[in-house]
TIGR01244 family sulfur transferase (Congregibacter brevis), 564 residues
Amino acid sequence: MSLTLIPVTESFSVSTQITASDIPTLVGAGVKSLICNRPDGEANDQPTITEIRSAAEAAGIALAYVPIVSGKFSATDVEDFSSAISKMEAPVHAFCRTGTRSITLWSLHQRKQGVNDAELLRIAKDCGYDLSDALGGALASEPKLAGGGAAKKDHYDIVIVGAGAAGISVASSLMARTQALSIAIIDPAEVHYYQPGWTMVGGGIFRQEDTVKTMASLIPEGVRWIKSAVGNFEPEKNRVLLEDSHPVHYDRLIVAPGIKLDWHGVDGLVETLGRNGVTSNYRYDLAPYTWELVSSLQKGKALFTQPPMPIKCAGAPQKALYLSGDHWRRAGVLNNIDISFFNAGPVLFGVKEYVPALMEYIDRYKATLNFGHRLTRIDGDAKTAWFETQDESGATVEVSSDFDMIHVCPPQTAPDFVRQSPLADDAGWIDVDQNTLQHKRYTNVWSLGDVMNAPNAKTAAAARMQAPIVANNLLHDMNRVAGVAHYNGYGSCPLTVEKGKIVLAEFGYGGKLLPSFPKWLLNGQRPTRLAWILKEQILPPIYWKGMLKGKEWMVNPERSKADA
């Protein structure tokens, strides 16, 4: 998708997120300076500020980093923006996820310079932004500039935050049960990713382009798509504030914005991602680089890392190891490559029944296991990584390893706007009852997917099971269906131990095995060709054409008979 610059004045423009490949477009437009108003890690396809800065400075463009958590503007933020823009050579271009934060900051800066609110509203509206809520107070008396007449109150029976696997699936599950409700889904992303496919991209099996579709093609018919970012939750007022401070009111709320990848959680990582042999299948644009490294490596040292839990798809770090090792074995170079797995946790896999089969492949690929080792910093130019661990006496020490390639799984947290909200528990995750997925304090709020705190594996398969449960229980709360559905913690992790075979781990709360198939057909504790066919050929269409469309194949939630 080509970058569109929105001119605000002759010397200032805004846009959505840019990438390093957009720098020539900016140079061609005469831009001399850039301001980034988006914090790193808001989305899985988002390039880091370091990548953009490197490309910009190479092209002679200065860059200032003034990150704003969506919807949260402070006086300090405005001062920082004012300071940055006053020192920069014009024309200046600012960007964030949608451009809203950038034009809001510019407007607040202009207000300080004496520009009246009515004029700022008009300029923003001409650029396609309504800042009547963001600028607040004084603009309430300017209804004509905000669109004419009294402001219409956005109110829906159900509001869903997030249009990832969990958000779209629960929207479709609701629509499959009733079309009598007004439903809105809030998400600014233009595209939707099939993230389970990125491991296969990194293994040279899937094409990168087959893991992405336009968001517009996936939003369920009858559901309003609010293409904006959420700034804050106000559950006491039954409303969500968008990044421009516009309120969206609800009777019931579903929170499913996914997880944040904290690339800055490892010192030096953002400076070297995508080069120097440093890669990650956890980002759409980097997965092909994983395969480039694997397919070209003939000898040397390959490291694979896993951070402390919780993380999205806990098996993904070792899946990268297995597929890489299998390629090197088939290419006849495995004996020339030293493979090491550095895991911050104490075990290879959290459900013991699957460990024997996995250990057979660890031995096959001659991989060294290093448990209790957390990646803390990396120097890509020196090709060295450092890990925090404990010595024999229990003292914390740092050890290092050189590498020729390293696959990094970044630390992960709940999104910033979730962690700072009243909906979060002490660790920052949405606080739900693990059986009903209803919020523990706000009874008209539910959550599913990676962002909530139930102790289940954070996988797409888990969201597939959770979506109809949340849909059922929300409608039960409205007296529209009978019986409360209960989530048993189901999650699935197809561990790609070699090309053509998978150990299909399926389990629930407490590590209880929850196989979908009889053992005679598919023994999940052993590597099988059938599980590979399921992963490679069957699960992608189930995702696109089933799960996201409200067709709840292989899902049969338990319901409380007492409530039926």
In short: The radius of gyration is 24 Å.
